[in-house]
Design a protein that fits this description.
Helix content is about 35%, strand content about 20%. The protein is of the alpha/beta class. The chain has three domains: about 90 residues, Udp-n-acetylmuramoylalanyl-d-glutamate--2,6- Diaminopimelate Ligase, Chain: A, domain 1 (3-Layer(aba) Sandwich); about 220 residues, 3-Layer(aba) Sandwich (UDP-N-acetylmuramoyl-L-alanine:D-glutamate ligase); about 140 residues, Mur ligase, C-terminal domain (Protein-Tyrosine Phosphatase, Chain A, Alpha-Beta Complex), CATH 3.90.190. Strands 8-9-7-10-11-12-13-14-15 form a nine-stranded mixed sheet, sandwiched between helices. Helix 5 crosses helix 12. The chain starts with a strand and ends with a helix.
Length: about 475
């Protein structure tokens, strides 16, 4: 992690000169949370509409922080004494400036990853592939925003050789900011879905926001993108010309530079071949295996392979890394119900694109007595939210589900759409998760398959836990 004197910090972020004693003090690592301060760290008090981190500065000092950033206009408590404070106009901006400067110092290859769905899974896959040849640092969990990304960069060890940074957003300009901070050598766009329609207005708007990741790429940088998405293909053709970027596509369609085919899906994962065409040299990788089921995860893996090959990771090492990698939890995680039924926990988040991918996976899985779908509301979809839920319901056919259990006010529309496709009585809507869990537990057989999916705010994992424990509401 970063190690500097406070004098060096002041010069980096153009802060006022410090006293000789304060300037010589050293910090190792940065935290915005006083509860997570370790001795020797610097504290960064952030401010928001309903909180002020400066109130916790004394706690940070008592836990061993060697100093802090301090926002102009905020009174300094006398209890802090001569504790080194670096005055800045905005502590968040100063944190971002420090991260950008630290990134420039390190001889590290940075891979930025964004997309409506699959960012975290693709991050895990890319990091696993690159770790076969490089010392790798990656975004922890879901720390992919304007605070989490700078903190992730500042946690990098000086000898890091490759950094895999996830970039999330909810509005225009946010990915551009993250890309300017991270200055990626290579960027990956996983797809364009329906998340954040409320903020961005349309899928075209979402594509424009995701393409902002190219803003921090140097001339000649590499942009790896999902070529099965027409909105990306057209937007990237223009960007590549304007910024002198190299663009490489991946996907299932033969128009891509990297094409996944011969895909076989089981509950334990997916097997596929990958061959290069177009701008990529002729190469076929046979029977690549990933511990993640679904065609959508195969395309994520194709992006990771393209990245690894470009950075010189041997084919055999790529195959081994993908086969043994670990996937972040609650992204189609198979668990057992109390009676042995298989539960696919995909409760991390939901939007129409992600839900359709999960439904496709259920259709690909065979050998179960009954397929049961538990679907919660998809949030933040804007004025078309009712029709988008209804369309998901209409997407469900007999191959995808025997019974649908919908929960939440918006999922009533999902149930309406599904009722048009499935047999009478096989679609139910519940007002509460407890009511749904009780009904599902009464009907669940050991030979069944259950998919649980919903937006983060719905906390659909509560139903997963009920199924694991055999306890209804």
């Amino acid at each position: 992690m970063i190690k500097k004197t406070f004098g060096e910090l002041a010069r980096i972020i153009s802060a006022a000169a410090l006293s000789t004693e304060a300037a010589s003090a050293v910090f190792t690592g940065v935290s915005t949370d006083s509860r997570r301060i370790q001795p020797g760290m610097m504290f960064v008090p952030l401010m928001g509409d309903n909180f002020d981190g400066h109130h916790y500065a004394l706690q940070a000092m008592e836990k061993g922080a060697t100093g802090a950033l301090w926002q102009s206009g905020v009174p300094v408590p006398p209890e802090l004494g001569d504790w080194p404070l670096v005055p800045v106009d905005d502590t968040l901006v100063a944190l971002q400036q420090l991260a950008a400067a630290y990134r420039r110092e390190l001889p590290v290859k940075v891979i930025g990853i964004t997309g409506s769905n699959g960012k975290t899974t693709t991050k895990d896959m890319v990091a696993a592939v690159l770790a076969a040849s490089y010392r790798v640092h990656k975004t922890a969990g879901n720390l992919n925003n304007h605070i989490g990304l700078p903190l992730t960069i500042l946690e990098m060890a000086p000898d890091t050789e490759a950094a895999v940074l996830e970039m999330g957003m909810s509005g225009f300009g946010e990915i551009e900011l993250l890309s300017q901070i991270a200055q990626p050598d290579m960027a990956i766009i996983t797809n364009i879905g329906d998340a954040h329609l409320l903020q961005l207005g349309s899928r075209e708007g979402i594509a424009t926001a995701k393409l902002e990741i190219a803003s921090g790429l140097a001339s000649g940088g590499l942009l790896i993108y999902n070529g099965d998405e027409p909105l990306l293909r057209s937007g990237i053709a223009k960007l590549a010309q304007e910024q002198s970027l190299e663009a490489v596509s991946f996907g299932i369609g033969e128009q891509n530079d990297w094409v996944a085919d011969r895909i076989r899906v089981t509950l334990e994962g997916s097997v596929f071949d990958l061959h290069g065409s177009g701008s990529e040299r002729s190469l076929r990788l046979i029977e690549l295996r990933i511990p993640a089921p679904g065609r959508h995860n195969v395309t994520n893996a194709a992006a990771a392979v393209a990245c690894g090959l470009r950075l010189g990771v041997p084919v055999e090492a790529i195959a081994s890394a993908l086969a043994s990698m670990k996937i972040t939890g609650m992204r189609i995680e198979a668990v057992k119900a109390y009676n042995g039924a298989v539960v696919l926990n995909d409760a991390y988040n939901a939007n129409p694109t992600a839900v359709r991918a999960a439904l496709d996976l259920v259709e690909q899985l065979q050998g179960y007595a009954a397929k049961r779908l538990v679907l919660g509301d998809m949030l933040d979809l804007g004025p078309e939210e009712a029709e988008l839920h209804r369309e998901i319901g209409r997407y469900i056919n007999a191959g995808k589900a025997d019974v649908v259990y919908a929960c939440g006010p918006l999922s009533r529309y999902t149930a309406e759409g599904a009722a048009e496709q499935l047999a009478a009585g096989s679609v139910r809507h519940y007002e509460s998760k407890a009511e749904l869990a009780s009904a599902l537990l009464r009907e669940l057989a050991p030979e069944d398959l259950v998919l649980v999916k919903g937006s983060r705010g719905m906390r659909m994992e509560d139903i997963v836990h009920a199924l694991e424990q055999g306890l209804g509401g």
